[in-house]
Write a structure and sequence with these properties.
2 domains; Amino acid/polyamine transporter I; ion transport; two-stranded antiparallel sheet; single chain
Amino acid sequence: MNNPSEEFLEQGISQQNLRKASCMTVVTLAYQSLGVVYGDLSTSPLYVYKTTFSGKLSLRENDEEIYGVLSFIFWTFTFIALFKYILIVMSADDNGEGGTFALYSLLCRHGSLSILPNQQATDETLSAYATHGSMETWQSSALKSFFEKHPRFRKGLFIFVILGTCMTIGDGVLTPTISVLSAVSGVKLKITALHENYVVLISCVIIVGLFSLQHHGTHRVAFMFAPIVAAWLLCISSIGIYNIFRWNPHIFHALSPVYMLKFLKSTGTEGWISLGGVVLSITGVETMFADLGHFSSLSIRVAFTFLVYPCLVLAYMGEAAFLSKHHEDIQRSFYKAIPEAVFWPVFIVATFAAVVGSQAVISATFSVISQCCALNCFPYVKIIHTSSKIYGQIYIPEVNWILMCLCLAVTIGLRDTNMMGHAYGLAVTTVMFVTTCLMALVMIIVWKQRIASAVAFLVIFGSMELLYISASVYKVPEGGWIPLVLAFIFMAIMYIWNYGMTKKHEFDVENKVSMNRIVALGPSLGMVRVPGIGLIYTNLITGVPAVFGHFVTNLPAFHQVLVFVCVKSIQVPYISEKERLVISRVGPKEYCMFRCIIRYGYKDLQQENYDFENRLVSGIVQFVEAEEDSTLKPTSIPCGELRNLDIKIFYAQDHTLTDSKFKDNNIMEQSCCDILETKTGMEHSGSSPLKEESLQILRAKESGVTFILGHSYAKAKKSSSILKKFAINVVYSFLSKNCREPDVVLNVPHTSLLEVGMVYYV
């Protein structure tokens, strides 16, 4: 029997299970979170002081600049990392998940802000969809009413979230670049003859190696991540304590906020511009929140409060103490502050820590892209699950190689960690400001807090972040343009793709076949009904898709059993297998037509790697057996070897029957012929035999299953603007032709695939 602690480590801890977890489990999770969550944050001392003093800011004899910068670092780290994220934002999880999409998902469910199509009232019955809580307040009601009356603001909020997401992707490009190059550049202190080109070459080799190993999955080397980061934190904190006592024991005076005011007063514009380097001390706090789903909020809080926070503060204080006596070493202060005896061990640990920090951000980028695909905001890409034990560890080949090329381009093109730091700072501060704004909305709409509390949160933290954004924007010509260009490209791709998919859905809704027309054709639908099952994939949750109208008009025969399959996303992170399928009947019973809606959360992998055909047939049979002529009360199937399966059942007129517990006939393991043979045994044993319609469905399954997919091609209308024609006819068309095809995403066998092309104008 497995130890409960091991199960928690493999599957993570939800907020509900956290209360039951032992203290040892939380401590163990806190230790493991070091390698996954804090790799990026802990490597910031490599480049913070160097970037801050990279401009015209000069050091004076009284050390006011050093004291002022340290004061800014300490209070920025305390206010934003500790107070904002650890104490407040960590509480705004979505069923244990964190990140920008988690906050947006909470707002969509509680405030009806979702712009996803195919949303149903029945989705709110999902266990992960729970919106009950404190009583509605007039502030939350007014804000929800405002968004309902003004769809443009809902669209604007969506674009705002996409902006934060694109900056996160930019973070995935800049983190490996600046971390690896900063770590490797330390070797020039010992090998002074080493040319800069060789430092760049070594950095590029490490980056290529890092991205080349991604397809193996992080779980294969994850056991090394935590000890590396723990060793790194202990190293830099110990060196910090050494430098404090050796060079300047009075450096702790700089923790007074008075030195921040003195710094701005004495340095003026140059001091304000240098704040773009100070903000690099909190790079990684957004990753800390985004990786919440792998651990628990308590374990992350414990690790940060008792280890990460004090170690990093000591490291920054120690480096400031060294700088106060060595003004000339400002551009190489981190490695210069390391005692000679331990330089090479610390250099090796620093390089490994930079790789670990880069790995965490790369994995987070994969996760973000996957979520965007689920919400129709990014073209379909190949998503590989790299761990059979740890859900959520994925690898996306196309994104991996694009990120690698971008990292190499930035490394070779800039060759300067100061310019990279300017770019990095703008990306980080933008994401943090997006989180602050979303968090203020969550406080009103979800937590039902007074508007004064949300405004205070927005003003306190938003003003700090806007200050850093303004300093970073000033550095746009010196590297800050990189995240802006990357964000613009990815935002254009996401917006155009989402626009095209939305118009495609609108076309499908407007051109769906009338049920009156289908019923008028009679049970045979005006064709010969041949044995077999036809699965027609559609975007519609109601009605008959236009692609079926083409079949009715042009084909002489069709399958005996028709199933309209709709795959849709819901704004919850995960949906349990027992709640995934929703089965209903389409039209009268003698037409033998059904609808199956497959529901996914935004962090679920939309791939049917299990035996989907048999699972679907099993669900339809259970639906038929449960359905009485009155369509009011379900019946169960008494069978021998059974397993529990919860299926939500609906009638064609959208009358909910009930949540029934059925027992699955092990259709996964045995063929339909075996099930048919059990009928005789059931009759002899006195059990109720399967209905004739159920047997007909099982026989149809034995005859074969055909998958029918409609291929829609978008074209801009002749009256459209040049910009729209370029977006639809060039960009969207290119993305559609080069992304993963729907049959690949849905894992449809090519031998059973039938495709129909359609053109729609937008």
